[in-house]
């Protein structure tokens, strides 16, 4: 036999052997199994996600309810504190302001201006703290105000110097100078 005949004969044997092998059937059987495994894994993943979502929703609902209860308890406490504050203001009015007004009347009965001030102190007003403050101001001299503490700053400001120039001259920060001027405006001394 010639060599080409051997080649043809070997090729035919290889072709018949390739057709006869059951490999493709085994691969096709494995493919549906891997698909089933993937579907099972996805189903488990979805179940786990649903459980996690339910737990998260429950946790959020519990935290909202806890926040609502905490808010209600704080509102009740604020109302109680406001009521106590009102009672303390009335007590302060009775113990400090009214006796101070009575002393002013006793000390200066002939002076109409002082009697008017004493009546104004003893008259009930909407802002009890304003009454207490005015009585305290009448009885004691005002402690050194912000204007007294920073007289050089306010002198420069009154001269029309800029905030930057004042800060540079006094060795202060620009924000500090602005804060002092703002506080003075609130205090009413500027």
TrEMBL record:
Pfam families recorded: DUF6115
Start and end residues of each stretch annotated as Disordered: 105-146
Keywords, comma-separated and alphabetical: Coiled coil
Coiled coil: 35-98
InterPro entries assigned to the protein according to its UniProt record, in alphabetical order: DUF6115
Record-given protein name: Uncharacterized protein
């Amino acid at each position: 036999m010639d060599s080409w005949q051997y080649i043809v004969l070997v090729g035919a044997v290889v072709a018949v052997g390739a057709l006869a092998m059951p490999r493709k059937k085994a691969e096709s059987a494995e493919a549906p199994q891997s698909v089933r495994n993937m579907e099972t894994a996805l189903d488990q993943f979805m179940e786990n996600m649903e459980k996690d979502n339910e737990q998260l929703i429950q946790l959020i609902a519990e935290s909202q309810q806890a926040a609502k209860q905490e808010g209600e308890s704080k509102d009740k406490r604020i109302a109680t504190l406001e009521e106590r504050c009102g009672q303390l203001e009335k007590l302060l009015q009775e113990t400090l302001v009214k006796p101070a007004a009575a002393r002013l009347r006793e000390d200066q009965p002939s002076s109409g201006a002082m009697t008017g001030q004493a009546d104004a102190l003893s008259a009930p007003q909407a802002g009890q703290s304003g009454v207490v403050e005015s009585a305290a101001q009448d009885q004691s001299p005002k402690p050194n105000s912000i204007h007294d503490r920073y007289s050089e700053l306010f002198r420069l400001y009154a001269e029309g110097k800029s905030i930057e120039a004042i800060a540079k001259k006094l060795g202060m920060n620009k924000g500090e100078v602005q804060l002092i001027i703002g506080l003075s405006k609130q205090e009413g001394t500027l």
